[in-house]
C-alpha cells in the first residue's frame, strides 16, 4: 500500500467528502496508478482539472504517482493564462455551444432563451452525448460526473445547482457568458434561429385577438414556431432581469 498527500482547490472541492475539502489529506492506493486515475477515483472528473502540481512541478495526467508525492489539483482557469506552467485542458472553445443531458431540460430552454445554441433531447444516451460534444465542439453540461470522466469528452462541466434558474446563473458565471448574450434569438422549442416574418404571410395562423393587437412577429427558421411580444414576452424579460441582476 502506497500513501500520497492530496490538496484540491476552489470548486473541485464540491466533489469531495466534507472532511477532505480545502485541506491537505492522505490517500492510500495499491499498485501502479496514474495521477488521472487517482484523481477520478476520488470523484473529481478530469475534465474539470486544468493544472496538477506534484512536489511543486507541473505534470500531465499520465504521470505515475509515487509514494510520498504531494499532489495539488487546480480547476479550470478561464481568465488566467497558465500555459507556461502546464495547462492540461484544451483552450476554451471560440463559440460557446452546448449539449445537455436528460436531467437538464429546463436549463436547455433557458440557455436558448438567452441566445445559445443548445442541443437537448430526453433520449440521448451517454455515448451519444460524448460523441456530439466531441464532434460538434460543444460543451457538455451534466449532473453525472461519471459522464465527464469519459476520455472522449474534451469540454464539459458538472452542474452543481438543482434549481434551473440558479443553474443558468452558474453556467453564465462559469463560462463568462454575459458579453455573449443574445436574448430571443433562438427557438425555445427546437433550437432553430429566430427571424422576422411579415404579418401578412401568417394571418391565417393567428387568433383574432392576436391579429388585432400585435403587428411584429418572428418565426423559427426550422420548425416555424411563431413568436410575438405578448404577456409571455414580458414574463421572459422579467426573468432575464432577475438572472442578470
Structure overview:
This protein folds into three domains: 74 residues, Beta-grasp domain (Ubiquitin-like (UB roll)); 83 residues; 51 residues, no CATH class. 25% of the residues lie in helices and 20% in strands. It contains seven helices and twelve strands. It has a five-stranded mixed β-sheet, with no helix packed on it. The chain has a four-stranded parallel β-sheet with strand order 7-6-8-9, with helices on both faces. Strands 10-11-12 form a three-stranded antiparallel β-sheet, with no helix packed on it. Helix 2 crosses helix 5.
* Helical fraction: 10-25%
Bin the strand percentage. 15-25%
The average pLDDT score comes to 92
For the largest sheet, list the strands in their spatial order: 2-1-5-3-4
How does the overall form come out from the CA principal axes? elongated
Please give the number of β-strands: 12
> So how many helices?
7
Structure in a nutshell:
The protein is 25% helix and 20% strand. The protein is α/β, with parallel strands linked by helices. The model has no long low-confidence stretch (mean pLDDT 92).
Secondary structure layout:
Blueprint: E1 2-8, E2 25-29, H1 35-41, E3 49-54, E4 57-59, E5 70-75, E6 98-100, H2 105-113, E7 118-119, H3 126-135, E8 139-142, H4 145-148, E9 156-158, H5 164-174, E10 194-197, H6 208-213, E11 217-220, E12 226-228, H7 231-244
Parallel strand pairs: 1-5, 6-7, 6-8, 8-9
Antiparallel strand pairs: 1-2, 3-4, 3-5, 10-11, 11-12
Amino acid at each position: 500500500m502506497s500513501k500520497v498527500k492530496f490538496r484540491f482547490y476552489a470548486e473541485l472541492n464540491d466533489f469531495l467528502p466534507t472532511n477532505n475539502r480545502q485541506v491537505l489529506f492522505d490517500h492510500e492506493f495499491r499498485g501502479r496508478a496514474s495521477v488521472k486515475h487517482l484523481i477520478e477515483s476520488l470523484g473529481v472528473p478530469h475534465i474539470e482539472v486544468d493544472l496538477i502540481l506534484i512536489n511543486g512541478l507541473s505534470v500531465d495526467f499520465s504521470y505515475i504517482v509515487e509514494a510520498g508525492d504531494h499532489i495539488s489539483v487546480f480547476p479550470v482557469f478561464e481568465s488566467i493564462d497558465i500555459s507556461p506552467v502546464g495547462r492540461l485542458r484544451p483552450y476554451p472553445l471560440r463559440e460557446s455551444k452546448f449539449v445537455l443531458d436528460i436531467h437538464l431540460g429546463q436549463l436547455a430552454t433557458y440557455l436558448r432563451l438567452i441566445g445559445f445554441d443548445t442541443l437537448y433531447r430526453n433520449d440521448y444516451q451517454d455515448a451519444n452525448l460524448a460523441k456530439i460534444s466531441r464532434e460538434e465542439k460543444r460543451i457538455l453540461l451534466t449532473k453525472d460526473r461519471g459522464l465527464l470522466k469519459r476520455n472522449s469528452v474534451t469540454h464539459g462541466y458538472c452542474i452543481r445547482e438543482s434549481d434551473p434558474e440558479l443553474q443558468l446563473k452558474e453556467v453564465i458565471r462559469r463560462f463568462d457568458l454575459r458579453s455573449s448574450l443574445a436574448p430571443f434569438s433562438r427557438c425555445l422549442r427546437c433550437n432553430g434561429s429566430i427571424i422576422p416574418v411579415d404579418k401578412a404571410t401568417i394571418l391565417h395562423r393567428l387568433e383574432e385577438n392576436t391579429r388585432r393587437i400585435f403587428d411584429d412577429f418572428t418565426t423559427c427558421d426550422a420548425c416555424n414556431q411563431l413568436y410575438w411580444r405578448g404577456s409571455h414576452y414580458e414574463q421572459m424579460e422579467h426573468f432575464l432581469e432577475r438572472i442578470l441582476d
